[in-house]
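assembly run, all chains below
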Amino acid sequence: MKIVRGAKGHRITSRLATVTVGILAGSLALSACSSTATTSASGGSSSQPVGVSLILKTLSNPYFVSMEKDAKTEAAKDNVTLTVAAGNQDGDTQTQISAIDNAISRGDKGILITENGDAVNTELGKARAAGLFVIALDTVPTPASTVDITYGTDNEAAGKLIGQYTAAKLAGQKAVIAMLDLFNNQVVSVDIARDHGFLEGMGIDPGSTTQNGQEAKSGKYTGGTGGDYVIACHQPTTGAIPGGKTAMENCLSANPNINVVYTINEPAADGANQALKAAAKTGVTIVTIDGSCNYINGLLKDGTIAADSAQYPGKMASVGVKTISDIARGGAKPTLPAGQDFINTGTALITSQPIAGITSQTPATAAGACWGS
Amino acid sequence: MSQPVLEAQGLVKTFGPVVGLAGVDIQLFPGEVLAVIGDNGAGKSTLIKCLSGAMVPDSGTIKVDGQVVSFSSTQQAREAGIETVYQTLAVAPALDIASNLFLARERRRKGLLGSVLRMLDTPGMKRDSKKYIDDLGITTLQNISQSVETLSGGQRQAVAVARAAAFGGKVVILDEPTAALGVRETGQVLRLIRGLRERGLAIILISHNMPNVFEVADRILIQRLGHNAGVITPQTHTPAEAVAIMTGAVTLADDGDTSTASG
Amino acid sequence: MMRVAEPETAEEVLGQRNTVGRRVHAVLHRMPALSPLIVLVAACVGFGLANPRFYLAGNLSIVLQQASIVGALAVGQTLVILTAGVDLSIGAVMVLSSLVMAKLVKDSAVPGPIALLIGLAVAVLAGVVNGLLVTRVKLPPFIVTLGTLSIFTAATLIYAQGQTISLPPNTFLTWTGSAIAIGDFHLTVGVIMMLVLYAVFAYALRQTAWGKHLYATGDDPEASRLAGVRTNRVLLSAYIVAGAVIGIGAWILVGRINGADPNAGFNTNLESITAVVIGGTSLFGGRGAVVGSLIGALIVQVFDNGLALAGVDPNYQVLAVGVLVLLAVGADQWIRSVKA
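ok done. output:
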């Protein structure tokens, strides 16, 4: 009697298919259920409420939760019926696609979406064909024409602000710079934009528009009162604390004279700071971008992080709600500024050590508009 | 004749509508080689699996040394003294000879090292492995620390047989031991089988190879379509007659021979 | 599996026996961790030449610290890979476990040791889930851990709500980050824990019956089963023990970053597999020494650190690791190709 064998002797039975489906179904059930909540408006400018769908990446990240919060506030002001949906996790495009279809069936006037992936683009096309105004939040989709308009942070401008601050703070000193980027194995627009923005703010030519690490390794920076600079290293951090720590450790080993650290985001700055502390290295200027309440009230307030450019995800959502409400009531569609494929929702420099000539907010002020909790 | 060391009566095993064994008897005496032959589907493998504990028969009795036993696992059959050398040999290629000999039966060191730290008595096992192999008269395995995959087919067969002989108290079952071997190595395995017989073990040999069977077997049990077709000996019948009985061209009674058929 | 052997004459066999290739092959066959060790030594020499700062005690200390997390995880991954499986969820489980520990202490004022035990329990439970799906439901480990990876990643995001957690140094949970000075070297408790893990499992895998059964099950599960090894139990135990190791890895992580970060596990799944593969353990199971995974983890960190010190473009770090993996797998294939 022969037994059918697959590779490595495992018995392949027809149970496999049934059980795989069961496991996948179970895993979807175990993850958070996608939440669909409807906020009705009271009062407002016209009698007929306007339906808007807010479709987020996930609800387990305070960045997107702040979008939900501000969108709801704006919806109440504008007589908008807001329906909120979110993927079960980062990358879940299926739930988003269903939410888009629901928006069309419901007769919503517009959709605000933070895409989990390009798989939603076809559905967005259907929505636009059905007359909905589609707005992307935070990240410009590929291609930008998938949506009617994008509201997001100008990451390059955010980088420039911290670069200018750093140059001013150096006041002519030599800058030994550590660049702690996001990845070294993929190219992501936010990574390039923030890195290059910082260099431009410092008055250093990034040397490329598409890649990090292409600037001249030494030379003169023209920001502030100008001076000499050396790029000590570019290291990836994956945007997390351990990555930031490892990157900073390697950079410090390569060049113990580092006095400026650019970091892609706050957790990376956190990790870099821990490495500096462990090496008992003082007098280092750490700058970053994000503006979360967690870090504004923490490392930024006590000066460990010298400067932080804030993002306003809540503003992206609330402006989006207002835009759709206005268009549905006969207003004009927003236009893109020349040369950009998104509308900038703004950024501001936050620091607890202000410098004359550089506009900034204190952490206490910024805490009023920060995201997260 | 002495009491059979292994005896089964009326073994029945069905797989849904397919009949594997339709009431099979077998007797095995110590110090003999019993060959089991039969065409494909005759029930040889099924019979062996029931005897070695890999399968539970639907009905029928199995006795070891006169005591009725029932095996629900191969482990229980092993404990009763029945060892099986499978056609696939059941040796782990990456492990060395000593590790394979003692696989699932490893010995621990004496004292605290063994009980608390669970340390294996590797030198002891290597020593004993060498002894088992020497006792069987195997001279081609010089290095006990060699991994099994570096051995030839016949050498691996020798390792599997040595394992069965080392732990097999009473019965060793060999399933097609020479199927994939060349002439010289087949001769080595047959020599091993005779060595086991001389030590008083009882051997069941399943084989398609008529010349081998007639060379080494004392009695030959012929299976056909789930039934016993008869028991013959190399002295009373020729290979051609055995094949004829196997394929059903003749039945033992037709043959007119008065050799005892069991059951 | 049986190979049909061709009869060779004694002269042929003896003549082939002593070529250098055969000798090297035989040595590597017995000690699979030797080739990665040679690579590690060569890398250290090379990077030291490129920038002598590589040899500073401070630098070597941080390389060890950087390797401590993936190094610890690689022990668990080695166990699973030795059984011819793979655990793709290992990084997610580590992060979840670290978050549970840190959050319990920070937000719920749970005492450190209890928070640690609960975190360990979470990791062991993950191992039980993986192990049962592989042994009872008989799904391939790749698919099982791919599924549980999603589940644990989602659980982590929901539990953490995207927030990092910060703990004070030198408390019970962050003790693994405190450094012990040995001359100019700074070894963290985490590094020492990782080394202890390797010592324990090197012993367990070579000197106990459990270890033998693990190797046998990975090498040839059917043969092991027929020989009497309880292969299902062995497989399940591999995943559960790996879970416990992951929990220890989580503790080391909390000490290293003084807290927890839900995004910490981004690359860790693949990094642990890379360390095991570079270290000479075969993805097909049954072959390898756990110490090789330590060497593999060190090699990856040495390359990252050495290339950074040499001022090389970070993209080349990725290239270097890729080449290393291919070389390691190629070497493994060559070592496994034994003629009977």
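DSSP finds ten helices and ten strands in chain B.

The longest strand of chain B covers residues 18-28.

not gonna interpret more than that til we talk
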